Amino acid sequence: MAKFRKKPVVVEAVQWNGDNSQEIAKFLDRAVSSNWIDTITIATLSIAIKAFRGDWIVRGEDNEFFVCKPDVFEKTHESVDSEASN
User: What average pLDDT score do residues 19-38 get?
Assistant: First the structure.
């Protein structure tokens, strides 16, 4: 069996904290629906996705959006903000 390493990719992401639906709408450049304090619904081209408080909304390479659970996000992503200042 062959082994593969995931290519490093820089993405933009915003974490849903229950009170930042305007920030997320601006990030997505589209309206979002927040019916509950703990969830937000994001309409994509193909489906509507739901993010729960603490989830990260990530913009991928092809300008697609997806939701990532905080524990998975922490394991698979690291900040590049400090690299930009060096």
Answer: 84
